[in-house]
Amino acid sequence: MQPQESGVQYSRWEDRSRDEVHVVAGSSTEEAWSWERISRKLCSGRLGIAMKVLGGVALFWAVFILGYLTGYYVHKCK
């Protein structure tokens, strides 16, 4: 099936009793496909695992530094 220029996607089920129409508002189908491709690339495979690990480490350090600074100012001697 060739990509359509409009923002309407049509697919027919095998039992032919249900037709499905999707309307993509505000963006073309080519843009949606490119975002899908990018998200699939960044969220799966080795690169996806590396991104999740780096995100977890960055989140850990952000919370650690925020907690350290909060504790410092809360328990600071006058």
From TrEMBL:
Q: Name one Pfam family in it.
A: DUF4731
Where do the TM regions start and end?
49-74
Key words, A-Z: Membrane, Transmembrane, Transmembrane helix
Q: Mind telling me which PANTHER family this protein's record contains? A: SMALL INTEGRAL MEMBRANE PROTEIN 1
- What is this protein called in UniProt? Small integral membrane protein 1
